[in-house]
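Worked example

This section walks through a single chain of length 110. The input is the sequence exactly as stored; nothing has been trimmed or padded.
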Amino acid sequence: MINGFDDIQKLSKDNVDIALKSAGAVTKGFQAIASETADYSKKSFEAGSAAFEKLLGVQSLDKAIEVQSDFVRTAYEGYVGQMTKFGEIFTGMTKDAYKPYETVFGKFPK
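Given that input, the structure is written out below as tokens.
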């Protein structure tokens, strides 16, 4: 009877350890996402401000359209690059969160 209780207690402890490792990986991933979001927001604001300053200094409509087109192109490229980074972070976070469970799921017969 006591041996069965010890087994249940060990299993519970192992499950809590696995859950904590998984939660730690998710927390780390969301911290990386928050950091990337802050960096991207800062860069985006600076790029927008620089484009606005350039736009204020133009003398012709053609130059204004060129400045605006350059800004839109670089903003779009930056956005796509940032979304790619987010995708990589989410993928890594998901893999890291699942790793602790691999040992548990590997014990089940196929």
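What to look for: The two ends are 30 Å apart (CA to CA).
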